[in-house]
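Minimal example, chain plus zinc ion.
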Amino acid sequence: MHCAKAWLAGTWRGRPQCEGRKAGGPLQHRLSRDPGQRSGGRRRIADRVYGTVRWIIGAAILAVPLVSADFSGERALEYTRHAVSFGPRPAGSAALRNLRAYIESQLRLLHCQVTEDTFTARTPDGSVEMRNIVARFPGRSGQALVISGHYDTKKLTRFVGANDGGSSTGFLLELARVVAARKWNDDVYIVWLDGEEAFHEWSDTDSTYGSRHLAQRWSHDGTLARVRALINVDMIGDRDLDIEYETNSTPDLLNLVWKCAGDLGYGKYFTNARGPIEDDHLPFLRAGAQALDIIDLDYGPSNSWWHTPSDTMDKLNAHSFQVVGNVVMEALSRLD
Ligand SMILES: [Zn+2]
């Protein structure tokens, strides 16, 4: 993403670090079973006298992790860690191709409709094949809600993008698991966007390749006319979470999301620091959709972890994913 110049010169760079939001706070939610515990528990159960009955119960529990009603920040963090383990993942790279295969393998477990929006982008480095991943959870109303985020990372030396590219990837994987567990009036689309990052300097033509392509495609095929709201997430895993009030976003959606955050007791994380930020929601806004960006573009001292090799997993925590996950699920429920 990119800050408009006024925003760069103004609010966030000079803003003091937010008090009371430092790392190490207690996690509000914990996974009741992690995969290691599950497999270990299964072996022990099989050894018992009433092993068969217990095994059947255990097998039923094993089926649960595919879908769950509650968003888990811990699990979103682990999905992010797995995404980051693929290494630097710029658009067109083998690492991004491998990550895409992983995302789609996870989606297949959820029995949603998965399509790829494939296109060739003209970049300053030449033609690059890109693919957005679109998961659709069908509803009944004929209308649609969309949650999006990018899964590529900026092409920089030793840059793994734990927060910038990784966090949105992991967040959306966990969100898909939770969305799959519910019935929806509207279609819910979860979209992993390719090519958000500029290859060189951020500009209208060198950035947001995936969202520009999908917005155009959805304009032509009629999907966008059915979209009631699009919420984009980016850089939401920072352990020192402070979401900016992004002023390009649709005011009604800003009001809704900030109201949800306040009602859930998360007001301190959804700040009043105002300013425009350019991100993947813009192509959809320009195409006429209602869209919002949830972003924390205040990452490390004086934003020094942004687009640097310091953007690593140790800067993130599960609580921040939990806060944003709960707010997004609440907003989705109120919109549906
Ligand atoms: Zn970035």
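The mean pLDDT is 85. The domain at 2-29+70-335 is CATH 3.40.630.10 (Aminopeptidase).
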